[in-house]
Amino acid sequence: MSPKMGRPKTKDFSSEKFQELSREERQLRGKISTLRRMIKKRELDIQELMKPIQKKRNEIKKIQDELSEITQRFENSDFNFPSFRVEGYISKGKSYYRGVWYVNSKKKQMYLGSEESVWKRVKTKHPRSYKKDEKILDFFLNELQMKFWNEEYKDSKS
Fold it and tell me: Is the full-model pTM beyond 0.70?
């Protein structure tokens, strides 16, 4: 067996000096070396796994930038969403919620569900909230805006 076989040594430790060490110390030094290689290998694996995550983060950043740009265009133009609110109402002894907004002085609304089902959905996003109507509006605002937008687009298209 040639002395050059195997991986190169990272420390200047002659084989004679290494042999002078106790068996236990040689085993510990070997274990340290193995553990360092294992850590380095896993760190490289992590870097490789992070590549798709970083790619998704970059995609999200681009989408957020585009969203911000469109939002700025809305704020600087005549496109305005009406103000939305959530109101509770009682029908046949049960409590329900609906989203409400006005277009050209006409009341528009969207049924959100029973109090129990609405609050159950809102709790997924706001588990420690006690201000029901605020959090319900926060949770459903995008849906209300999309319904408004779809109705307005449908009306202007026909």
Answer: no
